[in-house]
Design brief:
Length: about 120
Amino acid sequence: MKSYRDLEIYNLSYYLAIKIHKMSLKLPKYELYEEGNQIRRSSKGITSCIVEGYGRRKYKADFAKFIIYAHASCDETILHLNFIKDTHAFVEKEIQVLFDAYNKLGSKINKFIQYVEKEWK
């Protein structure tokens, strides 16, 4: 692994953050700046934490801590997707696709946390 760009969780989180950003700009005006801003920040926070953690990869505890933060931001993004779905601010089918993708990402991040904690040198 030469770069954080080689991490599957980085690539998936980046891709999903772009999808969230574009989706959030289509929210109704009353949600654009409230829920839209929150979900943009949490989705981009996942990627940011992965990159920052990778930058500290020589310190196993720091690396793991930032990947845990990424997992927490993933959970936060799922929460915001639920708010958007439950307030009917967006098409439910499109939200479900993102919801499923973020659940998959959360699982991958969790597995990566376990890898870092047990096997990272």
